[in-house]
Each structure stands twice: as structure tokens, then as C-alpha cells.
């Protein structure tokens, strides 16, 4: 009798499990997409920081070269 009850519940449970599995897949894909978007933004910020840093270093170097060459 337990076996009959288990078989009666299987289609509903299988459908619920399939829906849960689909939901988990969608959640995982959404999380992966959001993580990739954030990683792209962070990488862009790093490149901007590097560009400003290198510009600043070169600007200071040129000012120092100018100061040394024009010192009396």
C-alpha cells in the first residue's frame, strides 16, 4: 500500500522537483550574469585608475625635468 501511495505522489513531486531545478538554474544564470556585469565594471575602473596614475606620474616627471633644466 505504501508503494501505491508513493507512485501516486511521484508525478506531483517530479513536477515540483523539475520546477525547483529550473528555478535554481535560472537563479544561477542570473547570478552569473550579474557577477560578470560587475566584474566588467570593476575591470573598467581598474583601467581608468591605471590610466590616471600613469598620467600623473608622467606629468610629475615632466614638471621635475623642466624644473631641473631651468634651475639657476
Order of helices and strands: H
What is the first-to-last residue Cα distance? Answer: 106 Å
Structural class: mainly alpha
Low-confidence stretches: none
What is the number of helices?
Answer: 1
Helix percent reads over 70%
Give the averaged pLDDT, no decimals. 85
In terms of DSSP E residues, the strand content is: under 5%
Structure report:
- With 72 residues, the protein is an all-alpha fold.
- The protein contains 1 helix and no strands.
- It is rod-shaped and about 95 Å long.
- The termini are far apart.
- The mean pLDDT is 85.
Which properties best describe this structure?
single chain, 72 residues, mainly alpha
Structure in a nutshell:
This protein has 72 residues and is mainly α. It is built from one helix and no strands.
Set out the fold topology.
Blueprint: H1 2-69
